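Ticket #246: bound-state structure for uridine-5'-diphosphate.
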Amino acid sequence: MGGKSDIRLIDENGIRIDGRRRDEMRPVRIEAGVLKRADGSAYLEWGDNKVIAAVYGPREVHPKHLQETNRAIVQYYYAMAPFSVDDRKRPGPDRRSTEISKISAEALENVIFVEQFPRTTIDVYVTVLQASAGTRCAALTAASVAVADAGIPMRDLVAACAAGKVEDQVVLDLVKEEDNFGQADMPIAIVPKTGEIVLMQMDGHMTLDEIDEAMDMAIKACYDIYEIQKEALWKKYERLAEEEVV
Ligand code: UDP
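RESOLUTION: The complex was predicted; output attached.
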């Protein structure tokens, strides 16, 4: 973020490095129920990002001292596959993945009826298979579909998207080059039914007006993501219904 570059990231016609306009999101595709051994799962492609999410639970907590007597805990494990980025990513947790896991678990705890499952854990594993910026939003979007696919009671889904600043302009859903050489990146996640913001971070600098504009753009995009999430879940249930008929 904020690195100097000679590359023009937005041309004189307002077209970005990958051909998008300022307020355009990359194409998003989600499939629910892709893993047989998980209680719930989802595969998501978001531009060049590829993410898989697997959910287990509610199940017994190990180690036991982590358990809460009045609610389920949500344990979220964000991981990047070694081959997901240009330079090989060293396997295992690091500061970045620990931070992403923590804030994503907190976002999901807002929508899961955790009080219905005391002393249990809901484990959410998200692996980034291919990364091109915006992976925490992609991961949380997929994880939320996987939790719903597991049949875990939820108030709503969580939908996420980032907006930021590139060449002094507010843009939606930064791609890797924009994230590396841009001025700011602000991931946001919302509960679409209520409009509550359950995750918001910012790397870089924006003025208050720019933050307003970026928030509007990202929140609007979250509602588009929400439709794609619901569609993925509908498709899964249609598939199940067809299998039952046969
Ligand atoms: N990235 C990388 N190696 C790493 C971490 C990140 O190449 O160890 C790249 C990857 O493409 C990622 C991007 O940098 O999507 C932006 O990372 P950031 O920490 O901003 O999180 P994200 O935007 O993916 O949520």
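RESOLUTION NOTES: The chain is about 30% helix and 30% strand.
TICKET STATUS: resolved
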